[in-house]
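Lecture 7 notes: from sequence to structure.

We start with a single chain of 98 residues. Read the sequence below before looking at the structure.
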Amino acid sequence: MATRRVPPSTPTPGELTRFNPSEWAAPGETSWQLGFSRWKAARRAWIDQHPDSTLGDLIDVLRVNLLTLQELERWRPSPPQGAVMLVPQPYPPADTRS
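Now the structure, written as tokens:
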């Protein structure tokens, strides 16, 4: 069944449609990751307040978030993370005073 989509009552701000790291970075930040988190939160808040948005529903927003993240990781990789200890630590010796 075909339905007609009602045009949005409020136009979506341009900064919410496409992620630009320079628009969402706080002073002194060297990575795009915190700005990306702020952008995602702003998009979710926008669709909560404007269900008829051109961003679509939650599934559409999550899909664009994932595609944007993949694009960012491809062209601007995250900084290397610290080493992870994969060898389990030994248990402390058992108390033998019984």
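The chain is about 45% helix and 0% strand. Keep this in mind for problem set 3.
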